[in-house]
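Slide 14.
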Amino acid sequence: MADKLMKTLPLLTDGVASTMTAFEDTQTQVKANMDKTMQAAQDFAAFGQGTLEAVVASGQAWAAGVQELNQHLAASAQARITETVEAVKTFATAKSVNELISLQSTFARESLDKAVAETTKLTDATAKLANDVLAPLTARVTLAVDTFGRAA
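Slide 15: predicted structure.
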């Protein structure tokens, strides 16, 4: 029986050693996978934080731009009212119907030119606002494509 035990002991020892090695390899793989998972979770959280910051920056650009547009519109409306009041005062000083028609024509032409110029300014300001609002979001989309496109 001792001979049998002596023959079985090395096999048993080899089996335990193989099991331990397999267990250690599995443990190493699990740890590596956990590290990758944790890193991915941290990267995802950081990306989410960056996206939140981009949304906030976009909202701030929108608020500031709308406020600026409203101020511009209010100043423009005030200027048009002042010009109209002055024009009406000038109309009252007309000495003839022909002079009144001439003054009104000049006022109408100048008002139209100012309206066209104002429309151009507002169109440019609105386009700039749209670009300013979309810039942080566009940057995040680009980063997402670069980051997650690369990961895939």
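Speaker note: The chain has two helices and no strands.
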